[in-house]
């Protein structure tokens, strides 16, 4: 009996994998030629991918998947029947490739017939995008140019993208890697992971954590509800969290960091123009390079700092003065203790 049950489960799993595999194949593929420089996509619930390459033409793959579960394998006739409920566009307008899919206004919603239409687009590397989806993820890679995109509920993934990047998601995470120039990314509820970025960088999340590694430029990174972690950041960094702690290491950037609900821990590899650290509900600990030349202004419940080379006024709660001649301004404020090493 157990052997028969196991065979039935394996058979069901194999059938599900076959259905999934069927959905991995593009339903339709089109190639567009000519003087093209932009792709515009507007879909109601699927995902969007745009990948730059060396070809001059633009190749578009359209995927059709089932929204209902368990997934059943659809033949081409059934897919075409369900696609009749949608207004589908795949065409060019001037220098733009235009792709869209929307349920027809006179078609009633039926969960049993519900499908998801997604696009994967292969373009030249120098290409701009204008992308919108109501619920799927967006992925961009190996592109140069202006990129604008938004999703109501999916994640955003950018890899090797250079140019003016403007992206929004209402509930998904954001991942950026090896991007440059100007980046403005926001999510209302997910985490942000940024790595190997250079340029002007603006990162915002209303409810997730921030992870930043190897960034260089003018950086603003804010979260309303998560922690902030970073490593090897250069340039200038302004970062703030309303609901978590801050941990930063190997810093060479001019730094302004504030936590309203957690501690602040910073390892400074090389001092830059200024260092400003604040914690409204925790402690601050900072490790400075050897023999730092800093101008100290510190407030805390208890203050600990190196006395050798210090000139100024200091007690258990306040420090005002210069260490080793005092060049770089260091301002620290905490409700709990402050420790400088």
Structural features, described:
This protein has 341 residues and is mainly beta. The protein has 2 domains: 26-136, no CATH class; 139-282, no CATH class. Helix content is 9%, strand content 57%. It has helices at residues 2-23, 76-83; strands spanning 28-32, 38-43, 48-53, 58-66, 86-93, 96-103, 115-124, 128-133, 138-144, 147-151, 156-169, 174-177, 180-187, 192-205, 210-223, 228-241, 246-251, 254-259, 264-268, 275-279, 284-287, 294-299, 302-304, 310-314, 318-323, 328-334, 337-340. The chain has a 27-stranded mixed β-sheet that branches. A hairpin with a 3-residue loop joins strand 24 (310-314) and strand 25 (318-323). The longest helix is centred in the first third of the chain and has 22 residues, at 2-23.
């Amino acid at each position: 009996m157990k052997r028969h049950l196991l065979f039935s489960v394996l058979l069901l799993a194999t059938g599900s994998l076959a259905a999934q595999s069927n959905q991995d194949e593009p339903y339709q593929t089109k190639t567009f030629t000519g003087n093209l420089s932009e792709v515009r996509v507007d879909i109601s619930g699927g995902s969007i991918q745009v990948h730059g390459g060396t070809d001059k033409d633009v190749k578009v793959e359209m995927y059709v998947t089932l929204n209902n579960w368990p997934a059943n394998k659809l033949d081409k006739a059934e897919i075409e029947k369900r696609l009749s409920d949608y207004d589908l566009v795949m065409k060019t307008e001037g220098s733009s490739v235009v792709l869209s899919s929307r349920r027809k206004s006179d078609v009633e919603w039926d969960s049993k017939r519900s499908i998801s239409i997604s696009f994967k687009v292969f373009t030249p590397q120098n290409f701009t995008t204008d992308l919108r989806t109501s619920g799927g993820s967006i992925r961009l890679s190996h592109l140069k140019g202006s990129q604008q995109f938004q999703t109501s509920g999916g994640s955003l993934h950018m890899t090797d993208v250079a140019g003016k990047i403007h992206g929004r998601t209402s509930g998904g995470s954001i991942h950026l890697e090896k991007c440059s120039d100007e980046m403005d990314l926001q999510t209302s509820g997910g985490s942000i992971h940024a790595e190997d970025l250079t340029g002007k960088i603006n990162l915002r999340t209303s409810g997730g954590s921030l992870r930043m590694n190897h960034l260089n430029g003018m950086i603003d990174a804010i979260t309303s509800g998560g922690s902030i972690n970073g490593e090897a950041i250069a340039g200038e960094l302004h970062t703030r969290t309303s609901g978590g702690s801050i941990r930063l290491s190997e810093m060479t950037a001019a730094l302004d960091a504030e936590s309203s609900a957690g501690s602040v821990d910073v390892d400074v590899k090389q001092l830059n123009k200024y260092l400003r650290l604040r914690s409204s509900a925790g402690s601050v600990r900072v490790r400075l390079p050897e023999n730092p030349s800093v101008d100290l202004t510190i407030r805390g419940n208890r203050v600990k700092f190196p006395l050798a080379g210090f000139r100024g006024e200091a007690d258990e709660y306040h420090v005002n003065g210069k260490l080793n001649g005092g060049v770089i301004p260091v301002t620290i404020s905490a409700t709990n203790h402050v420790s400088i090493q």
